């Protein structure tokens, strides 16, 4: 069964774009035109992923987020908005209170929509996240040096972990300038241009990471390289 995605947005054009692009990619997409309708739809059938607008009539996106997370704190929610600065203080308060979410800037390209949906699909494919090594590498731009690093890292992971028990996800931050990075940093276009190194998030089974690091450093012969900061 295709992954279930819920889009909560008062703009029918935005909802239509998500439905068209993700529907063609094989996802089951449902649409809600306001927060209350979205909450009811999420209660009726749990979505694997929610795209949530902030500025809506009735209850806004922050209140919708709070109510959804009270119902099910494990829901994966991407807030997609052009008004992040206007709601930033409320979002920080919600995050500090334990309401986890991701943040992306409107408009999302079709590539970004599919990237987010695909990352959720991989994490819900039947393998428990605690058994699986999940790596997300945030970089400013994917240049030749980073492409080589990613190829090397993928080769070593494939040799160290069983198929299906590891995942490497690479995010070019300039393509998603308001995505929340690890350690709860909200990146802005200015900030990501100043990042000197990629940021790496690790989740799940880290038991074999020493082997991975050892194999990667040995590729360069001296075993002392700083691979990722």
The termini sit apart by: 39 Å
What order do the helices and strands follow? Answer: EHEHEHEHEHEHEEEHEH
Total domains, how many? 2
Rg, Å, rounded: 19 Å
**Strand order of the biggest β-sheet:** 2-1-3-4-5
Count of extended strands = 10
Percent range of helical residues:
40-55%
CATH class of the largest domain: Alpha Beta
Please, what is the CATH homologous superfamily of the largest domain? Response regulator
Proper CATH architecture of the largest domain: 3-Layer(aba) Sandwich
How much beta, percentage-wise? 15-25%
Q: Helix/strand/pairing class, anyone?
A: alpha/beta
Uncertain ranges = 177-196, 222-229
Shape: elongated
CATH topology of the largest domain: Rossmann fold
Mean of all residue-level pLDDT scores: 75
Total of DSSP H or I helical runs spanning 4+ residues: 8
Sheet with most strands: 5 strands, parallel
